[in-house]
Fold Cell division protein FtsK.
Amino acid sequence: MTESTKQQVVEIRTGLSHALGAAGHALADAEHEAGEATTRWERIRAAAQSRERKLAAARDERLRSIDEWHDTELGALAGAAAGAADRAAPGAAGEPWHSWEPTPLAKPAELRIGRLLLPAAPAPAAPAEPGRPWPWDEDATVSPPPESPEVPALVQLLDHGHVVVQGDRKLGDDVVAGLLLRALGTSVPGTVQVIGYDPEHLGGGLAGFAALAPPRVLTFVAPNALSQLLDDLVGHVRRINETVLAGEYSSLRELHAATKRRPEPWRVAVLLGAGELNRHERTQLERLLRTGAACGVHLIVHGLRVDPGPGIECVTAAPGNDARMSSGGDLLIRLDPGPPPAVLTATCRQIAEAVAAGPAPVALDSLLPDESEEWRESSANGLTAPLGDSPQGTRVQVTLSDYPPHALIAGPSGTGKTNLIYAWMGALAARYSPAELAFYLLDFKEGVSFARFAPGRRDQSWLPHVRLVGVNVNTDREFGLALLRFLGAELRRRADAAKQHEVTNLAELRAENPEGVWPRIVAVVDEFQVLLSGRDAVTTEAVDLLEDLARRGRSQGIHLILASQDISGIEALWGRPALVAQFTLRIALPRARRVLAEQNTAAESLPRYHAVVNSDSGATDANQIVRVPAAGDREQWSALQHRLWRRLPPGELPPRLFDGDVQPKLDSSPDFRALVAEDSPAPVALLGETIDVMSRSGRTVLRRAPGRNLAVLGTRVEEACAVLATAGRSLAAQFSRDGARFSIACFDPDARPAAEALHARIPDCGWYDASNVDWLLEDAAAESTAAWPADRPHFILLYAADALPGGKATLDHLRTVLRQGPERRLHVLGWWRGAGLLRDTLGGPGSRTDPIGAWVALDVHGSELAPFYPGTGAPNWYPRPWRALHFDRSVHRGAEVIIPYGAS
Ligand SMILES: Nc1ncnc2c1ncn2[C@@H]1O[C@H](COP(=O)(O)OP(=O)(O)OP(=O)(O)O)[C@@H](O)[C@H]1O
């Protein structure tokens, strides 16, 4: 081998070994890189796996919360639906049968027929990864989806629409029975009337309701009378639209919401399997379906094809969970079973009894305008207010104006006369303000029926229109007379004003004298016949005044409402045709006789709580029957009275309340409170409260003049002492301490405490008794005849003057004082226990009585008073407890009745 070859080999080997070395390096590098890449890949794969797991967990968490939310939301929705259903169907409208009982509601509710089957919360889908548990399986604290509450399936009937039942016949019957019972049980007995048409079973379909037939809450029509029934119902709809809604309201529901009145019953016609309808029947049925609900005419149809339409609920009866109703969309219903027979019959019997007992009272509210409309009316032309509804559902308005001006109301006891007066007053008082209307109220019946209009101990409010209330005046006919006198004076005042403005009636006077306050006056006298019952001066004057007021009051806005419970009251007037003729408005309560015209017997057949109102003197053609709302309820009345009372501006005075059973108090007498110590030359002795429209004290003036003495006559110690105490206290109040002298002498031990009490009240008053009265009278007699002028008056109060001791001498002194004292300002105020005894003091039967210028008689008959009374007659006086007759010859034409002031 050549060197060169060897050289070449070496070189090649070297080259190869280099190459090998380089390749080895490259391989190692490559392997290293490959290892790193593998590690990186494995890290990435691990990271990807971990991320995937996290994402899955997040997804699971999200899915779980979505499911939870879905379940709660569904539960809440179902709960809300159940709550709403409870509100829409309270009480007997929605209660399940096992706890059901009738509960009349204020307005119609939706009625339950079964239970809505709401979609349940969906069962959770299978977990995505088999074997991987759902979170709530892992965590025992997470609860399973909640159960849905029960949501009743409700249908609307009364005031809303009609119900058509299809499907299973037997189950459909149960739906009809259930609906009907719920409708009856949620309304006031008698306000839902059911008309059954059941040609197949001749009423058998409604057999459970049989108890409602006798009071005609349920009536059946014959199998061939469907046409007639539909015509009748259409007739009702037309009538109600024309006369009840009268264009003012679109439905009875609206009328009720606005006026709180429901003048028509709901009429529910139940048509069970009518077969095929002829054209006329079909047309009438469609009319009713369209227009009936607004007029309270509703149909429950079962077994008759009816096209769906607005206001028509279609119930498809089916067993189990397969029933449906048109307003429920796709939701299924489980129908309730029919009402249990025991519940059904008991309820029907209960309703029948309630209906047979008579209509339920209508509330006073139905007569009242909206609060925003109160006190808006003008009485310039008259006073008009509703008194209730007629049987046809129209409002009966009653007017007092120039014609008819006055009203006569009659009704035997308990028929609701007082209630009618309250209702009328309430309806008027809510419409007319006190500047438009004033009430004067007098009740001759025993009791306090009108007292509620004046402030009392329990309730300080009063009816703002009331100016005067007289209660318990049955023995104080004088109070009635006082009212008539007062109204007579007001009549003259108005007539004078009318003359001055050259007008003839109140409307014109108000137009001419807009700034004047000329309210119409309504004087109500309940049991007025008591006022006219005696054959005496009171009756004579009362009748004269009544005649005048009735004749002339009409144009001066003075209206009389006379009420009487028995025929004698009306007959008291009957003898005075001219007077009766003025009372053209006649109101008769059930069984009232003779108040309407002789031949008009409408009141005889009136149902309870109704009245005949007749504005044409009782002529039969003018009869209007009205159902009067209940106004007697104190709470309802108080609500109205308080509302009106709060409208009064502050400072308005309450009405005068005259209560014949209450003893007046001197300290409350305005006349007594007005007395001032001015040492008057004409001091006034107050004696008692007069029976008058204004609170006024009977009085006698003890001026310097003959006869100015006072005698109190009778045996009643307490009352005699009360009169003397009033006289003494009132006189003392008019003098300064030294301005007058007072002396009291008492000879009756029974009167001594009262005499001593008066003595204690009068400063520096002298006290005398049997032991020293002779000195007093001797001095007084000397003073009476003295020549020098008296510097101050001396009042001598003698208790039991007829028992004066001291024999003739003392008696002569007393006679001297009585005759001559007053001119020298010495006045005797004495109590004699009989009129004859006073006569004895004065000198016996033939003696003059003029030293006694004023007297107050207690239990002394009128005839005994004749000697002390001018003219030939005697005053008309029949003694009665705690009343006295007062006469003062210097001012009176006739005697007046007074009420002694009670101890204060
Ligand atoms: N329209 C009515 N609605 C409901 N209840 C009435 C109605 N009218 C009267 N009443 C009730 O009947 C009863 C007798 O009524 P009210 O006192 O008015 O009769 P009256 O004829 O005035 O009787 P009396 O003359 O004996 O007082 C009362 O309890 C009253 O609440």
The pocket of adenosine-5'-triphosphate is lined by residues 361, 411, 413-419, 565, 609, 628-630, 632 (CB under 6 Å). The chain has three domains: 152-356, 364-659, 666-899.
